[in-house]
C-alpha cells in the first residue's frame, strides 16, 4: 500500500530534478521566457510529465489530470514569485499525499 506513496514521491523528484533539463526549467518561466519559446507550452509539457508519472503509479487518469493542473498552477505561481522554492516543493508533496489518499480509498 505505501509503495504507491513512495512511487508518487519518487515520481515528483524524477519529474522536477531528473527529467527537467535546464531548457525546460528556464523556458517555462513566464516572467523571463526564452526568446522564441512559448513559455506556456514548456510549462504544460513539464506538468504533463508529472501527470504522466502519477498515471503510471496509480493507473488513474483522473488523478493524473489533477496532478497536471495543480502542477501547472503551482509552478506558474512560483515563476510569478508569489511563492518561493520551499513552498513550491511542499505544495507538490502535499498534492502527492492527497493523490495517495484518494487512490487508497478510491475517492
- Beta-strand percentage? under 5%
Shape: elongated
Q: Using only CA atoms, what is the Rg? A: 14 Å
Taking the alpha carbons of the first and last residues, their distance comes to: 15 Å
Number of domains: 1
Main sheet specs: none
Chain-averaged pLDDT: 97
| Class based on secondary structure composition and strand pairing | mainly alpha
Q: How many E strands? A: 0
Q: Percent range for helical residues?
A: over 70%
Write a concise keyword list for the protein shown above:
107 residues, mainly alpha, 5 helices
Explain the overall architecture.
- This protein is an all-alpha fold and 107 residues long.
- It has one domain (2-104).
- 77% of the residues lie in helices and 0% in strands.
- It contains five helices and no strands.
- The protein has helices at 2-18, 22-27, 39-58, 61-79, 85-104.
- Helix 1 runs antiparallel to helix 5, helix 3 (39-58) runs antiparallel to helix 4 (61-79) and helix 4 packs antiparallel against helix 5.
- The mean pLDDT is 97.
Compile the SSE list and pairings:
Blueprint: H1 2-18, H2 22-27, H3 39-58, H4 61-79, H5 85-104
Brief rundown of the structure:
With 107 residues, the protein is mostly helical. The protein has one domain (2-104). Helices cover 77% and strands 0% of the residues.
